[in-house]
Amino acid sequence: MSNVAATIASAALAVGVSALGSLAADAQPVKSVVLVHGGFVDGSGWDGVYQILKKDGYDVTIVQNPTTSLADDVAVTRRAIAAAPGKVILVGHSYGGAVVSEAGTDPKVAGVVYITAFALDAGESVASLIANPPPGAPVPPILPPVDGFLMLDKAKFAASFAADVRPEVAAFMADSQVPWGIAALEGKVTVPAWKSKPSWYLVATDDHMIPPPAQRTMAKRAGATTVEVPGSHAVYVSNPGAVASFIEQAAAGADKK
Q1: Can you name the CATH fold of 29-255?
Q2: Which of 8, 22, 36, 223 is 20 to 30 Å apart from 161, CA to CA?
Q3: Helix, strand, or coil (residue 14)
Q4: What separation in angstroms does the CA of 43 have from each of 191, 213, 240?
């Protein structure tokens, strides 16, 4: 074999080994999960889901959104994705669905999971989707804005947001609300992740914040693998086992995509 031929053969072998290494890396199970909370709450509500995922061997990051603007929340989420080891399953609850729709196009994201969340299309915002609720749909008890931020009526918080959560926990959630910036509601998604990444959607059938029919419509539009679970808007708090199991199904499913 000539020197030129030997060099070419050696280079081809190196490329082949590199390609095999890349395929092996891609074949690794997805074991990182990034959890993104929605409006009016913070990341502490994920505690039950977090504990289950950690016990099952997942690396879990909980994003603490400032909920001041969609751009700010996406930036925080992208930093969490960058810091997570390996490929990531990105999970959003409620308004967090808008955040993961925008941030989920990151190359490290293997799949996007919506937990009774806004799976927005390009040009949509949470504000545009909730502007004209259908007749008979429950209307969340959102108080008039103060200094550009929204809150839920504490007296009506449990019934609308967390009807199946233990009363003392629901009361704590009401009293520890995080003001939700109007700029966050009005933030528009540019390129939704569900158009390029496999997606999953958990419908909470007793949700009084995002009507279940709206959830089903968004899930179908996204082509998401969908499951329906009895529960309130805070199903991730009241039934962390079902939510964690669904996230693990997504992680296993993303391995095969």
Answers
A1: Rossmann fold (3.40.50)
A2: 223
A3: helix
A4: 25, 26, 14
Q: Is the pLDDT of residue 141 over 50?
A: yes
pLDDT at residue 137, as a whole number: 77
Strand segments, DSSP code E, in the chain are 32-36, 59-63, 88-93, 109-115, 149-150, 180-181, 199-204, 225-229
Burial of 117 (0-12, 13-18, 19+ CB in 10 A): buried
**In the chain, what are the domain boundaries?**
29-255
Cα gap 232→201, rounded to integer Å: 15
pLDDT above 50 for 181: yes
Q: What mean pLDDT comes out for the span 173-202?
A: 97
Question: The pTM is what?
Answer: 0.89
- Distance, CA of 45 to CA of 82 (rounded, Å): 23
Strand ranges inside 120-253, DSSP E = 149-150, 180-181, 199-204, 225-229
- Taking the CA atoms of 156, 162, 167 and 168 in sequence, report the sign of the dihedral they define: negative
By three-state DSSP, how is residue 146 classified? strand
Q: Which residues contact 76 (CB under 8 A, 6 or more apart)?
A: 63, 64, 65, 66
Is residue 213 packed enough to be buried (19+ CB in 10 Å), middle (13-18) or exposed (0-12)?
exposed
- pLDDT above 70 covers a percentage of the chain that reads 89
**Residues recorded for the chain:** 257
Q: Which of 91, 19, 37, 66 is nearest to 248 (CA)?
A: 91
Compute the average pLDDT of residues 43-71.
97
Per-residue pLDDT tens for 80-101? 999 999 999 999 999 999 999 9
d(CA 244, CA 228): 14
